[in-house]
Amino acid sequence: MYIKSYEIALTRFHILIIRNNRHHLSYTYRYYHQNITVYYCGHEHNVVSLAPDKIYSIMIKITLPDGSIKEFEKGTTPIMVAKSISEGLARNVISAKFNKTTVETVTPLETDGSLILYTWNDKEGKTAFWHSTSHIVAQAIEELYPGVKLTIGPAIDNGFYYDVELPNGSISDNDFPAIEKRALEIARGKHDYKLRDVSKADALKFYKDQGNEYKVELIENLEDGTITFCDHDTFTDLCRGGHIPNTGIVKAIKILSVAGAYWRGNENNAQLTRVYGISFPKQKELTEYLELLEEAKKRDHRKLGKELELFTFSQKVGQGLPLWLPKGAALRERLEQFLKKAQKKAGYEMVITPHIGQKELYVTSGHYEKYGADSFQPIHTPKEGEEFLLKPMNCPHHCEIYNAKPFSYRELPKRFAEFGTVYRYEQSGELHGLTRVRGFTQDDAHIFCTPDQLDEEFKNVIDLSLYVLSSLGFDNFTAQVSVRDLDNPDKYIGSVENWEKAEQAIINAANEKGLDYVIESGEAAFYGPKLDFMVKDALGRQWQLGTIQVDYNLPERFDLTYKGSDNELHRPVMIHRAPFGSMERFIALLLEHTGGNFPLWLTPEQVIILPVSEKHEKYAKKVLKSLENNEIRALIDSRNETIGKKIREAEMSKIPFMLIVGESDEAANTISVRKHGGEDLGAISVTTFTDLVNKEINSTLKSFKE
Ligand SMILES: [Zn+2]
Ligand SMILES: [Zn+2]
Question: What sign results for the dihedral spanned by CA atoms 30, 34, 40, 45?
Fold first, then answer.
């Protein structure tokens, strides 16, 4: 319960605000370090006085996301602000951010500031919801596995996990129902989440008494005065906050899986059990999610990649290093040709650079200082004492290509493109199919232009990115414009004027191209603003594909110049861009997006010819020949199998068209066409079929800037 804030004049110069919220009182207490006794509601409270010179306004101004500013009494909580807007909103608010910091919905607000209220429909709301559920599940596990040591339990993209050290034995699928049952019972108790300050000494004692060295280690790295515990029901956890109001909002909990995980992700540390789960405010939403999960399993790119014989991995070659099989390589090659053709039209020139570069190159670019320690370590030559790095990005090489000769402003922009393979170290536990690998190929290009050309170049790159997405059937993408955090100007390099110009160029271009975009302030790289294209995979997880980034840093570091109309040397601006992002990730997402049913122009085999019997093989070959002459990719299934079996297997391999050739076809010089999925197009001539295929291809694959 909340009691209205009171102000009590202690002397002429003292004003005190008291609330029945322990958290707030202890905060004030710690801040002023002065004890006096005052009276409140007739009861004696040991609270605090303020220094005589500190007389506080008891009203604060809260700025809401729509820009409106409302006045509230100091100590108002986010949930009270929600109530002042509408009761409906207050019922749905489960998380809040105040001045860019996550707060509890019951945290008293002490200063002017901007407040964002989140519901389940917001990403931040889900994060609070899932993290809060991890506390409930941790309580259930603690009760069911006495002696368990809890470590950390964050929210993730889809749900949450909790890493625990089990006293003995393990948790298996069979144990999930018991954990879910107990967790739901706890949730139904509608316990409030209560965050409270705790001194470092008390926090350490709490976990030392439990013998939990993990929490002790976490606390040791925290500063006294910043440590909070979160209580609900009988459960207490070390936590910095970000909770929903109470456990009762969680109506459905599912434990999804368990996996091994090292403490702090370091394989030299103890191995823990990671319990993954998810929760929802409605049972129905859980049911829908589980259905989606089933569908996603079918669309998992790792499974489809294997079935369609596109790529593989070999332990011998090394983890996270994909091997492209012939069909996959051909598909990738087609994608590359498709982009090369468009890029040529857009004025790009292809360049080629080696897979390694001298360490010095990355010292110059600044990458070594920033990422060196977490990268593949330098390669040493046997004699001359040279050091090379596996290329983690192509940009420094391309800067040196620009530097190979002087340019005048009339020759800009220069657009250097390369399908450049790069190598980045990822921990083995982080590797995932083609989406997280250690070696991948970027469809990279760097544009070097004058600041005045930025606008136009950006628009051109957006055109190219949109062309790529639409040709591959990604209609459902979002764009994100990442700009500076204006409160932290020191974080960024480059002049304010240039930044303003670049951000405006991106926003103008996005508007002009009719992009549906969001602006994320503070998400820009330190060297420049950017625009990213995001798409969702089969599970609804968001992935970044194409990216366009403005860079003021590398031209400076590599001392890139051009001669301006004033005959003086100037710095060009650099744009990094990759419409696919990386070939590996793009193909993975395309697989999940299409379920393996690629657009007709891209698919490995467009047609399979199925002779009804051996007798018709000659005719089948004749059909194949004429398809090949029309650049249609086809093959014959001439195995001695029943036509039924051949059709079933062709369905499995997701080949778009099956051409069945038998007695009557041969006699009439036709083919019987069956589409993937079962649609029967009847007996038609090869010419009619060829037209049909070309028409379908042309409907998705237009040429760039037609
Ligand atoms: Zn928490
Ligand atoms: Zn780059």
Answer: positive
